[in-house]
Amino acid sequence: MSIPMDLRLNPYPWYGEMLKHSPVAYNEQYGAYMVFRYDDVRSVFQDYKTFSSALYDGLSEELTFDSQIQALDHPRHTQLRALATHAFTPKAVADLEPRIRTIAGSLIDAMLTGQDIDFVKQFAVPFPVTVIAEMLGVPEKDFERFKHWSDIIVEISERLLTGQTEELPEHIAAYRDLKQYFQSLIHQRRTEPQNDLISRLAAAEADGEKLTDLEASNFCSLLLVTGNETTTNLLANLIRTFAEHPEQWKLLQRNRDLIPQAVEEVLRFRTPVQLMFRLVTKETEISGTKLSPGDRVAVFLGAANRDPAKFERPDVFDITRPSGPHLTFGHGIHFCLGAPLARLETSIALQVLLDRIEAFEIPAAEALEPLTSFNLLGLRKLPLAIKFK
């Protein structure tokens, strides 16, 4: 089963066809069975024993993921997650709200004073990277390096998962630099703790066990990517979607109590991470398709979140939709630890934008440029014409 050439701007018509006619199909490009239906995707996430997250084992000698929480299975995943959760607590996220609001306000004010507005460059990129860097305790002078490292990690993951295991020197160097950077900070925080997430990770303890420097470093790397790339795309998707549905923006202006539902609807309607991979460990089947140990599955979150068997009028963007159980943050033991932070950042961004903007649109002459990444839904730039309050 081949995939249409470029789905990076709007994969949803194809998802609709696959949901209806080929809910499980093998794809040679991915070397994986594509899974589209909500119930099937949820089952793959739930059954972590049959569908392993240890996808990177043996793919590369230089680029190892054996201590990264997202690439581990139970019980080691559960042990590391418990330690990380002690540091990355709901209170730690909630305590950031005043600072997040200040960062959002200053970035939006700066964006609105410019002549040519690009929402991605001026807000969606710097906002989450600033938040996660400050939360970790990284000096401001290193923020740009953070963004570069984050892009490299995304590209490395994609290369390995699609069989491109050749080791590029520049990728290896950046990967090593990032790990060494975090390990150095963690080592420093063990003797000189500060009020930041790296210090809490260094001190975290559960059942008499602590994170090693490498494990804590890898968790920081994960937060860097998930707290940066995915939130950038979520914010860009949010503004793109409201620009295409101005009546929903007006409704939100009249009723700000709908902000939490609006965030959930954007997460469902334009899922930032479109697909994830799992490795089959034993004989099984999905919707009648038999799978063997060593097979890979690609679960399409973006399709599952538009499954008409789960969501009424799934292709309609409706911020009054009751907040249903979308799969944007996954499900089961690998449910995204950063979900509360992403929701908080997006809610605050909406509040600040509603304070300052009456209406906005994407200029008709501007062609939207999708990301080059095959599994992320977002935009390289997002020009806006804005009517201020």
Plain-language structure description:
The protein has 389 residues and is of the alpha+beta class. The protein has a single domain (12-388), classed as Cytochrome P450 (Cytochrome p450, Orthogonal Bundle). 49% of the residues lie in helices and 12% in strands. It has helices at 12-21, 38-46, 76-87, 90-94, 97-112, 119-124, 126-136, 143-161, 169-191, 197-203, 213-226, 229-244, 246-254, 259-269, 301-304, 339-356; strands at 24-27, 32-35, 51-52, 205-206, 209-210, 275-280, 284-286, 289-291, 296-300, 357-361, 369-370, 379-381, 385-388. The protein has a 5-stranded mixed sheet with strand order 1-2-9-6-3. It has a two-stranded antiparallel ribbon with strand order 4-5. A two-stranded antiparallel ribbon has the order 7-8. A hairpin with a 4-residue loop joins strand 1 and strand 2 (32-35). It is globular. The protein starts with 11 loop residues before the first helix and ends with a strand.
Comma- or semicolon-separated keywords:
about 400 residues, alpha+beta, Cytochrome p450, two-stranded antiparallel sheet, 13 strands, about 50% helix, globular, monooxygenase, oxidoreductase
Please render the helix and strand layout as text.
Layout (H helix, E strand, L loop, with lengths): L11 H10 L2 E4 L4 E4 L2 H9 L4 E2 L23 H12 L2 H5 L2 H16 L6 H6 L1 H11 L6 H19 L7 H23 L5 H7 L1 E2 L2 E2 L2 H14 L2 H16 L1 H9 L4 H11 L5 E6 L3 E3 L2 E3 L4 E5 H4 L34 H18 E5 L7 E2 L8 E3 L3 E4 L1
Parallel strand pairs: 2-9
Antiparallel strand pairs: 1-2, 3-6, 4-5, 6-9, 7-8, 10-13, 11-12
